[in-house]
Design a protein that fits this description.
Chain lengths: 344, 527, 341
């Protein structure tokens, strides 16, 4: 009677599951975190927070937009206290959906530069990630890629690697270009990029860097931390590759490289608001920023936090001071523009 | 002729029909949510040109994967059932193993293995001075990877069908000078057409609903459009609308599949079963057959999973976390299997009375996970709002419900097929022996379908282990599954770390796959 | 006269526009075997289903053991009808052993009572050695015995069998039929057997019911139905029949193959139904030409022509006519029936 045994086992499993769920300690201080960051290296950070404050972090990870949709469905009963994401666009969409509440905190406003947080305090950026280029040092001179505009020039016809247009990092970059240049010039730039593609968009950022190393193209758009990770990797092939492929920091209108953020805000119906603010403040602390910089190779948001090795050797670039909220709002525009130009 | 009049003509609401209606509604609720979402609200301005391109890619992909799985799965089943060659007994179950590998894991493995900057091609260029003329990222690669992932659906269905064909027909064909290949495509294949349709329908529906693998292989299908309209434009309305053609296609496929089945006759109860006349393949022929099977198993399992494993060996996995996730996967798999099979059984028992309910309830299988998530959030929202402080239990219940709605077709197909062993006259006999309609359903139909229910639970179990989108969006706090971990690492472009959870999924599914194939081997009456 | 086990009175059943059963009337008595004979599609299976309660009637009444079971708006479900059903495919439950198949309908009995009943039935139908076996390991004849024993377990008033012998092999068939019928009669149940095989029907039936196009044409003993069919259609159901136009004058019907007495019929045109065995060699008969002779085993199949009318006859006896010759023949009035136009 295999079926009967099977069913009995199953019922047992369900009962067990039910018990372990009911067995929650209500006395414990908690904060519920919805995270669109999916890095293992964040877990020790959460443990450190609990160690410091006695507040336990419950987390759900997922795609930013699915977390947003879930919070919407949960409505006023949502258990979410904090939503964090690795892209300003997602935070902006959450704000648009009315999922954040403005938070005023002396710690947050003093530690996070104004351009890296939402003006009303709906969300704050803790880490920065530059959208820059990896280039073949043998074929490309640094001055040929010192401006985003130059990437669209005929110099790089058939020599550029990019990933698909729905990558949030590309969307934020093009959003920033629209913000700086207006739609028309941004459109011309996108068309130039499409004309310069060495191959149809494929793979992730790391694949673009490796494609440069493999000679498929001379220049590739990438996020800074992927390159830094490869340069400091245990994998010898990756390290060797970064000796040939260098990281370049193009500038936007001479004001510096496009910078996106990892950040978060307090949920509008947060049941543990005080704890939520404490968590945001913890993320803004020098300790947390150093940890993430060391583990995930992002740049700290606060100027007073010195980046640890190996990030330090890449962090003396000029970051564009454009407000992150400004380009975040332009992501849908950017997508339409890129699709129309044939950037798949 | 006489069978056509059904119990429905008695104008009484029967218990099985009512149960089927309930199960059908439960399974359909998320889809109703999708349609409702598509009707009301703001849309994203995705260009019609792009939508057309996505739809065309989806259609071509479905066509090629459908053809490839049909040919590969049928040939494999034909070799295994009708021939004897070196390694046949091993291949008989090994050929089904790719079922245990999530399509996205296959995509990770292949994309990385054949990457232009990957070690394989780098060393080929460096040492041999030439490069492969193809990569896995692109349409061709997607067809290859998805065919490798989904051919077992056809293989399993066709193997069961070939095993159950009457020896008499094969012998009749031989006396008519029809042998070898001829008897495959002139006799065995036409007779097994319903099974072929069922297997290919599952493969095509999986293909249409896939996002993880095609996204990784840089192929943009309708699911790309769905995810774009949601993630970039924040419009679940457009996402739901883009899903409507997929739902319509799935409905059409199901309709065709059911129609194909109508002509199927019952194997009569007093047919005599003799051992199949298995042909010994000699020498080079035998080795060719073995090579074909080995190539399939290699392409679907050994090569990509081996590559993932090779890469995973360099990492230092977080074993406690992986084991916890494995426990969660196992628990969800078992619960998902139990609930889905229960609902599918309720549906299947009522199918004779309510064919439409069963057909529609299968649509979830062709619904992309992201869209299913949109539909699921509606009923979930009601629950969340009704029960504040709903914790772990509710979240798990919702998840299991999501699996049931999504995987109903996978459970319904085998149970429905199992129930065809119950002829209408058996039911009438039970009725005349003093059993009510409900009682005869429990005393005759359920026990006869017991084997099929076990098959169904194994398939659902395997599918739940691989499931990603619903798990991502509905899971409770601090709850990872193996598929979630694999996805996290892949999103972060840490492929070598994605290997370990992917391989654990394969390992967890292995016993189920082996059990499943052995069950089919013994399915031949009198065997 | 005792209460009939089954009474079907003026029953009709329509599917959309087609009438499957029209105004059918039938009575079954305990201990007697009735055969419902008709070609496939004539509605006999539908009538069986109506009696079993698997479908409602559109008109008319069905009583079983004196209780009203079916009428317009009334349909007692099959489980409450006191009927037994045996199907062409026997419909044994594949998941139950022979013993458990037989005990399936005895849910209300205690285990020991059930066992006792099963044992009795096993003995009655010679199934003792098969008790623990699975249905798919049995021969066709064995499966049928189990199906019948199972249907009789609850001692139903009426046992309905749908083409019970058609699934059996030819040479087995006669033996199985003989022994099964003997066992069936011994139970004293009213039995209704549906068949399309006239020879079988006449062999086994105490009563025949002839059915065509949804109507019951005639009921009666096999001899009565065969020798005195109420219509040409009824005649054709039971065997080969040639129909010839005849002229009646002076109480005699004149055919090309000789005259037949027609005492009660007025002069004029009529029809004669001639069974193939009605023609016999007769020195005093009319002259007919032998067109062809074929060997049919127990008889010769002889094709004869007279006055441009061709007829096929089955002849027995040692005298065999030769093709091309002429012979004298006459008609056996007992095997010929006249019908007015």
């Amino acid at each position: 009677m295999a079926l009967r045994t099977f069913v009995t086992t199953l019922l047992g499993a369900i009962l067990l599951a039910g018990c372990s769920g009911a067995n929650e300690d209500t006395e414990l201080q908690e904060v519920n975190l919805y995270s669109a960051r999916h890095y293992d290296s964040d877990l020790p950070l959460y443990e450190r927070f609990t160690e410091l404050t006695g507040i336990k972090i419950n987390r759900i990870e997922g795609n930013a937009d699915q977390l947003i949709a879930r919070m919407k469905s949960e409505g006023t009963n949502s258990p979410a206290d904090v939503l964090i994401a690795a892209d300003a666009g997602a935070l902006w969409r959450a704000q648009e959906a009315g999922l954040f509440q403005p938070v005023q905190s002396e710690t947050l406003t003093s530690r996070i530069p104004a351009n890296l947080r939402e003006p009303d305090g709906n969300w704050y950026g803790f880490m920065r990630r530059a959208r820059i280029v990896a280039y073949d040092a043998a074929k490309v001179k640094p001055e040929e890629i010192d401006d985003y505009a130059k990437l669209a020039e005929p110099r790089f016809r058939g020599k550029l690697c990019v990933r698909s247009s729905d990558s949030v990092y590309n969307l934020s970059l093009v959003g920033a270009l629209i913000e700086a240049w207006g739609e028309k010039r941004a459109e011309q730039w996108v068309s130039g990029i499409v004309a310069n593609m060495a191959r149809p968009p494929e793979g992730g950022d790391r694949d673009q860097i490796r494609a440069v190393g493999a000679g498929v193209c001379e220049v590739a758009l990438t996020n800074s931390y992927y390159y830094i990770r490869m340069a400091s990797s245990d994998d010898e092939a990756d390290r060797k590759l970064t000796q040939r492929v260098k990281l370049g920091f193009p500038s936007l209108d001479g004001k510096g490289a496009h910078v996106n953020i990892s950040g978060g805000g307090v949920a509008v119906n947060a049941p543990n608001k005080a704890n939520a603010v404490r968590l945001l403040e913890f993320f803004a602390s020098a300790e947390a920023q150093s940890h993430i910089a060391a583990e995930n190779n992002e740049f700290p948001a606060s100027p007073d936090v010195t980046a640890p090795s190996p990030v330090d050797s890449y962090s003396n670039f000029t970051a564009n001071p454009m407000g992150v909220a400004a380009f975040a709002a332009r992501q849908p525009e950017a997508q339409s523009l890129m699709s129309a130009a044939g950037w798949r | 002729m006489a069978i056509k009049a059904t119990f429905a003509s008695q104008r009484r609401i029967s218990v099985p029909a009512a149960l089927a209606a309930i199960a059908g509604l439960v399974a359909l609720l998320p889809l109703i949510g999708v349609v409702a979402a598509a009707l009301f609200g703001e849309t994203a301005d995705i260009a019609a040109r792009d939508v057309f391109r996505y739809a065309a890619t989806s259609a071509w992909l479905a066509l090629f994967v459908g053809l490839a799985t049909a040919v590969l799965g049928t040939l494999a089943a034909w070799f295994i059932v009708m021939h004897r060659f070196p390694g046949r007994d091993l291949f008989a179950w090994a050929l089904a193993l790719p079922l245990a590998v999530p399509a996205f894991a296959l995509a990770y493995g292949y994309a990385d293995l054949f990457d232009v900057a990957g070690p394989l091609r780098m060393s080929m260029r460096g040492n041999l001075g030439f490069d492969l003329p193809f990569g896995m990222r692109g349409f061709g690669g997607a067809v290859f990877v998805l065919s490798c992932a989904f051919y077992p659906y056809v293989y399993l269905a066709m193997r069961a069908a070939f095993l159950n064909q009457s020896v008499n027909v094969a012998e009749a064909a031989r006396t008519l000078g029809c042998d070898g290949w001829h008897s495959l495509y002139r006799v065995a294949l036409p007779m097994a057409r319903p099974a072929l349709a069922a297997g290919v329908a599952l493969a095509v529906m999986e293909t249409l609903a896939d996002y993880g693998a095609v996204q990784f292989l840089s192929v943009q299908t309708l699911t790309t459009g769905i995810v774009r309209s949601w993630s970039v434009y924040g419009s679940t309305v457009s996402a739901a609308r883009l899903a409507l053609p997929l739902l319509a296609t799935a409905a059409l496929l199901l309709w065709i599949e059911r129609r194909g089945r109508q002509g199927r006759t019952h194997e009569s109860g007093n047919a005599r079963w003799r051992p199949l006349d298995v042909k010994q393949l000699s020498g080079s022929q035998g080795w060719l057959a073995a090579a074909f099977c080995l190539a399939l198993v290699s392409a679907g399992l050994l090569l990509p999973v081996g590559w993932l494993l090779w890469n995973a060996l360099e990492t230092n996995p977080d074993w406690p976390r992986l084991l916890r996730a494995g426990g969660h996967s196992l628990m969800l798999g078992l619960m998902g299997a139990l609930v889905t099979v229960m609902l599918a059984t309720m549906l299947a028992l009522g199918t004779r009375r309510l064919p439409m309910a069963a057909r529609l309830a299968s649509l979830g299988y062709a619904t992309p996970g992201a869209v299913m998530a949109i539909g699921l959030l509606a009923p979930a929202g009601i629950l969340w709002n009704l029960m504040p402080d709903s914790g772990y239990g509710i979240a798990i219940a919702l998840l299991v419900y999501a699996y049931a709605a999504r995987l109903m077709a996978a459970a319904l197909e085998p149970i429905d097929a199992g129930l065809t062993r119950v002829t209408p006259s058996m039911i009438y006999a039970a009725r005349s022996l003093g059993r009510s309609e409900t009682s005869s359903a429990f005393a005759v139909e359920l026990p006869v379908a017991r084997g099929a229910m076990l098959t169904a639970s194994l398939i659902v179990f395997i599918d739940v282990l691989k499931e990603l989108p619903a798990t991502l969006i509905l899971r409770p706090f601090n709850f990872d599954t193996l598929a979630v971990l694999a996805n996290n690492y892949a999103l972060d472009e840490r492929l070598e770390q994605a290997g370990t959870p992917s391989i654990l999924i394969v390992l967890l599914s292995l016993p189920a796959v082996i059990w499943l194939t052995r069950k089919i081997a013994f399915s031949r009456p009198g065997a | 006269m005792p209460v009939p086990s089954l009474t079907v009175r003026g029953v009709s059943r329509n599917y959309e526009k087609r009438s499957a059963v029209a105004n059918a009337t039938l009575t079954l008595q305990a201990g007697r075997i009735t055969c419902l004979l008709g070609p496939s599609g004539c509605g006999k299976s539908t009538l069986l289903r109506l009696i079993a309660g698997l479908e409602p009637v559109d008109d008319g009444e069905i009583e079983i053991g004196g209780t009203l079971m079916s009428a317009r708006g009334i349909n007692v479900p099959p489980e409450n009808r006191s009927i037994g059903l045996v199907f062409q495919d026997f419909a044994l439950f594949p998941h139950l052993s022979v013993e458990d198949n037989m005990g399936f309908g005895l849910k209300t009995l205690s285990p020991s009572e059930r066992q006792e009943r099963v044992t009795t039935l096993s003995a009655q139908f010679h199934l003792e050695t098969l008790a623990g076996k699975w249905p798919h390991t049995l021969s066709g004849g064995e499966q049928q015995r189990v199906a019948i024993a199972r249907a009789l377990a609850r001692s139903p008033s009426v046992l309905l069998l749908d083409e019970p012998f058609s699934g059996l092999d030819g040479h087995l068939r006669a033996n199985v039929r003989k022994s099964v019928l003997a066992d069936l009669r011994a139970t004293g149940t009213a039995v209704l057997i549906v068949t399309h095989d006239p020879e079988e029907a006449m062999l086994i039936a105490d009563e025949l019911a002839l059915m065509a196009d949804g109507r019951i044409l005639q009921t009666g003993s096999p001899q009565e139905c065969y020798l005195r069919p109420v219509s040409i259609d009824a005649a054709r159901l039971l065997g080969e029949a040639t129909v010839l136009p005849v002229r009646i004058s002076g109480g005699v019907a004149h055919t090309p193959f000789g005259g037949i007495p027609a005492p009660d019929m007025p002069d004029g045109q009529a029809k004669a139904m001639i069974r193939s065995e009605a023609l016999r060699l007769d020195e005093a008969g009319v002259l007919a030409e032998v067109l062809e002779v074929r060997f049919g085993g127990a008889f010769q199949i002889v094709t004869l022509a007279s006055q441009d009318v061709v007829i096929t006859a089955h002849m027995t006896g040692s005298l065999v006519p030769e093709a091309g010759t002429k012979v004298n023949v006459s008609l056996n009035p007992a095997r010929t029936v006249l019908y007015p136009n």
